[in-house]
């Protein structure tokens, strides 16, 4: 029998703790596959965030470093400066990256830090039980926006990719989604590209991945994918936001 | 080797490089700026790296990453900046990583001032970060001592896999003194086989971490950390005893203030009053045993600090209720004069003279 699909060597053979239907699992697999296919596992040093993916250090089959909430880009900076040839990446949620760690991500990009950031945007704080994130959509209910997010009170949802694309040091900025097989393939391509850009020493790369949180959205797994498609993609358009000539 | 005249901040930076420091991450704050500036000039030259972080929070987390990656790494700051670093310090202590942190302290609270103060005693020895952790804290009184301790601090940090703080005040940072870079005693260090430098496909992945969701596991980790701290208490205590023979009063004082105290002791001696000094060199572990060497001529202890009395708790614990404990302190960047201390000693002995 020919094997058509198997576990990537990029992930350890242990069960994850994610809720059923959560797309964190898919994103983990894509990162693992990208590292394996680029033959980077032996060179990879990942930085796990605080959030639902806090235990990512248990799952990736490479050296891992756990960081404080939001500080992963600074930790990755320290690692990369010590090991300039390593494939250093951060894996961060939207609360982690866009709220408490907004300064760290902006300045890692600003320095053109040669790291890769996988930014999982599920428009909510998953781990702490569904509070509002900077990325929560207008009208979206969360435990701390119980009447729906009001722009007048909480501001507009933060468009991280658009913001980072204004920074010269950020040489690869792309937003993808993991709601359909074809989008998943595009997501994988973007993740691989972000690692390649790093290994070529060109600068900072980030892939924003629109992801689901069926648990805190109060939806089934399939409804959550539909909600992502119908609500998130219109506000957070998919596509490449920055790839300067020298990186193409 | 001949002596050279250097400013404190630069001398500490130079000593760090001699101690093997290759990486420095910091953010400007007075009165320690000459230290990162020296690192910016010198580290690149020997294959190291200086990064000016966007904040103290980022700087200490860069230290966290670099220490996990196996480097000899340092950061420096002053009081409000150290306050911001506390989050990272707790993580570094929790993950048991070696690094050296310099606090050239100034008056507080809040933005305070920029003149020397010792009001970070609690911050340095108790820590503002969360959880059950301890840091080894050196408090040099001279630039030569600052240089010697800094050079050694990297070995000590590696030996225990623990952050070490060099606690100096703005005076130590800003003054100039002749110093000599002496060879220090090297320790036999454990192999760094736990670092994140990429598996190269040759070993199982390493994980640097301070999270333990299982309470039993976290308690076990904490018990192990305490055992390590006990080793530090046993092996790393340092202090100086000065003029203790027949002392009527023993002053307890560290760092810059202890130098003023020595002048006061000389002045008192001329008047026939014998006063001794216990000078803690490690603020943690605190030199409790130095207090067993107090002579039976001593009638009282006097704690002298440039703070409103932060070390007095430790003095009282070490004294075990044996002698009355007095306090004299200046704050906000005011440095006590020898005359003030002479006056206080006479006041304590007042009834009898
Ligand atoms: C300093 C600090 N503040 C707050 C927390 C609590 N906390 C843990 S996870 C989290 C939110 C994470 O949300 P996000 O980054 O969006 O990730 P998700 O859980 O949605 O995947 C918060 C606030 C913490 N651990 N540390
Ligand atoms: S809480 Fe949400 S983001 Fe977290 S694992 Fe569950 S579904 Fe995923």
Automatic annotation (TrEMBL), chain A:
Q: Which UniProt keywords apply?
A: Oxidoreductase
Q: What is this protein called?
A: 2-oxoglutarate oxidoreductase
Q: Does the keyword Oxidoreductase feature in the UniProt annotation? A: yes
Entry keyword annotation includes Oxidoreductase: yes
Q: Which PANTHER family match?
A: 2-OXOGLUTARATE OXIDOREDUCTASE SUBUNIT KORB-RELATED (PTHR48084), SUBUNIT OF PYRUVATE:FLAVODOXIN OXIDOREDUCTASE (PTHR48084:SF3)
In what residue span(s) does the Thiamine pyrophosphate enzyme TPP-binding domain sit? 57-209
> Matching InterPro entries, A to Z?
2-oxoacid:Fd_oxidoreductase (IPR051457), TPP_enzyme_TPP-bd (IPR011766)
UniProtKB/TrEMBL annotation, chain B:
Q: Tell me which residues make up the Pyruvate flavodoxin/ferredoxin oxidoreductase pyrimidine binding domain.
A: 15-234
Q: Which Pfam families match?
A: PFOR_II, POR_N
The answer on whether this UniProt entry bears the keyword Metal-binding reads no
The answer on whether this UniProt entry bears the keyword Protein transport reads no
- Looking at the UniProt entry, the stretches that span the membrane are none
In terms of InterPro entries, this protein maps to: 2-oxoacid_oxidoreductase (IPR052368), PFOR_II (IPR033412), Pyrv_Fd/Flavodoxin_OxRdtase_N (IPR002880)
| Keyword terms | Oxidoreductase
Where the record annotates domain Pyruvate:ferredoxin oxidoreductase core, the positions are 247-341
Name the source's superkingdom. Bacteria
> What's the name of the protein?
3-methyl-2-oxobutanoate dehydrogenase subunit VorB
Instruction: Give the species this sequence originates from.
Output: Crassaminicella indica
């Amino acid at each position: 029998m020919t094997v058509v699909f198997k576990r990537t060597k990029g992930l350890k053979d242990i069960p994850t703790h994610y809720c059923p239907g959560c797309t964190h699992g898919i994103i983990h697999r894509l990162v693992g596959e990208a590292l394996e296919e680029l033959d980077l596992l032996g060179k990879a040093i990942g930085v796990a965030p605080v959030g639902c993916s806090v235990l990512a250090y248990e799952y990736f089959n490479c050296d891992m470093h756990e960081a404080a909430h939001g500080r992963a880009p600074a930790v990755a900076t320290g690692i990369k400066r010590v090991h300039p040839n390593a494939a250093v990446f951060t894996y961060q949620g939207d609360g982690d990256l866009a709220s408490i760690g907004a300064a760290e991500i902006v300045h890692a990009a600003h320095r053109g830090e040669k790291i890769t950031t996988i930014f999982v945007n599920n428009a909510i704080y998953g781990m702490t039980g569904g509070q509002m994130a900077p990325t929560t959509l207008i009208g979206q209910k969360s435990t701390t926006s119980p009447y729906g997010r009001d722009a007048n009170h909480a501001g507009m949802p933060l468009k991280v990719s658009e913001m980072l694309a204004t920074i010269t040091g950020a040489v690869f900025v792309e937003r993808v989604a993991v709601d359909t097989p074809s989008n998943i393939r595009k997501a994988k391509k973007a993740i691989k590209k972000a690692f390649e850009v790093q290994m070529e020493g060109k600068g900072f790369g980030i892939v924003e991945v629109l992801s689901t949180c069926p648990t805190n959205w109060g939806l089934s797994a399939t409804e959550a994918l539909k909600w992502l498609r119908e609500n998130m993609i219109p506000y957070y358009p998919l596509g490449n936001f920055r790839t300067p000539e020298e990186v193409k | 080797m001949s002596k050279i005249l250097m400013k404190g901040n630069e001398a500490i930076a130079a000593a760090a490089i001699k101690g093997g420091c290759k990486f420095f991450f910091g953010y400007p704050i007075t009165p320690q700026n000459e230290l990162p500036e020296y690192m910016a000039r010198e580290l690149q030259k020997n294959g190291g790296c200086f990064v000016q972080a966007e904040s103290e929070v980022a700087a200490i987390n860069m230290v966290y990453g670099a220490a996990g990656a196996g480097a000899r790494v340092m950061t420096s700051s002053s009081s409000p900046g150290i306050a911001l670093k506390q989050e990272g310090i707790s993580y570094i202590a929790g993950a048991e990583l070696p690094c050296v942190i310099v606090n050239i302290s100034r008056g507080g609270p809040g933005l305070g001032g920029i003149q020397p103060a010792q009001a970070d005693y609690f911050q340095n020895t108790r820590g503002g970060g969360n959880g059950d952790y301890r840091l080894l804290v050196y408090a040099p009184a001279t630039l030569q001592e600052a240089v010697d301790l800094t050079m050694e601090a990297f070995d000590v940090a590696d030996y225990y896999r623990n952050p070490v703080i060099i606690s100096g005040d703005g005076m130590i940072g800003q003054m100039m003194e002749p110093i000599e870079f002496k060879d220090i005693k090297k320790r036999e260090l454990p192999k760094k086989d736990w670092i994140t430098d990429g598996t190269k496909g040759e070993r199982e992945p390493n994980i640097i971490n301070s999270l333990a969701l299982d309470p039993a596991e976290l308690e076990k980790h904490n018990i192990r950390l305490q055992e390590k701290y006990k080793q530090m208490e046993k092996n790393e205590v340092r202090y100086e005893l000065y003029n203790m023979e027949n002392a009527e009063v023993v002053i307890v004082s560290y760092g810059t203030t202890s130098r003023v105290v020595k002048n006061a002791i000389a002045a008192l001696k001329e008047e026939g009053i014998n006063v001794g000094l216990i000078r803690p060199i490690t603020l943690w572990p605190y030199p409790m045993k130095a207090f067993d060497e107090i002579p039976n001529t001593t009638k009282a202890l006097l704690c002298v600090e440039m703070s409103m009395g932060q070390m007095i708790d430790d003095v009282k614990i070490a004294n075990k209720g044996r002698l009355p404990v007095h306090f004299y302190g200046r704050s906000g960047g005011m440095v006590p004069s020898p005359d003030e201390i002479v006056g206080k000693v006479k006041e304590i002995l007042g009834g009898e003279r």
